[in-house]
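Two entries, shown back to back:
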Amino acid sequence: MMTALKKRQLKPAAVAVLDTNPILAEAMCRHFSSSKYFGRDDVVSLGWEQAGDLPIIRPSILVLDPVQAPGGIEELVHNLRRALPELQLVAYASDASLELARTCLSLGFRAFIPKSADSSQLTTALTAVANGGMYVDRRFAESLLPAPGPGQGSGVHQLSAREEAILRRISMGLSHKQIAAELGLSHKTVDTYRARGVRKLGLADRGELVRFALKQGWLE
C-alpha cells in the first residue's frame, strides 16, 4: 500500500515522501512507482506525525517540504543525520525562495525543486539523486552555484556530441559501466570521452561537472 503507513506495515523502502497533504504524497508515490526506476513497493508516503518511523523504514531518499518541518528544517536535518547518516534529502518546497534553497543546499540536500514544478521534473530530480547526482531547479541554480574558476566552463559548444552525451550522464550519477551499456561503448572508451570533455571545460572534479551541468540545464 502506498498510503500512510500503519505500524504493522512498516518495512524498508527506497523512497519516502513526507508531507502534510496525504493526497499529494500518495499521488507522488504513484507517480514514482509508475516510472521505470521505482516499483510499487519501493515508495511510501508518510505524514509528519509518522516521521519517527523513518529509522524503521530506512529509505535511501526522503522527499519533503522543508517549509513544513516542525521546529525548523535545521533541527529536522540534524535529527535525521543522527538516525540515518546515509539518507539523501530532496526538497519539494511549497514556498520556494532563494534563501530557502541556499539553506537546504547548505544542509546537504541533494535536490531542490519548487512545488510549481511538473511531475517529470520531480522524477528527473529523484532519478539523479538515486544515481548519486544532484538537481537544483534552474531558476535557483545560477544564483546558488559559484561561477566557474579560471579556465573553467569555456563552453559546451567545444564538446563533441559523444563527449556531451557522456558528461550529461555522469553528472546525473550514472556509472561508467551503466553509460557503456546504454551507449554501446567500452568502459575504456567512456573514460576517454569523459577525460577529453572535462579537459575541454577545465573542470577539476565531479562536483564541478555537476555545477556546470546545472547551469547548462542538463539536469532538467
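entry 2 starts here
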Amino acid sequence: MTDDTNPKPQKRYIPLNRWPHAWPPVGGLRHLAFHAKTNGFEKVIKRVGRRVLIDEDAFFAWVEEQNEKR
C-alpha cells in the first residue's frame, strides 16, 4: 500500500538558458556555473551531458547562504 496523502514535492530543474527570473540574468548564471568549483555553486547546478540545469530551490538556498556570510 502506498501513502499518497503526503506526496513528495518534485524538484524543479530549469535549463540555464531558460531561467524565468529577472535576477540574475542568464549571463550572470553562466558566470556562476563556469566558476562553480570555486564559488560553491556546484550544489545548485546539475550537468546532464552538455546541458546545465539549475535546481531552483537550491539556488535560493545558496543565495541565502551567501547573504549570511556577509
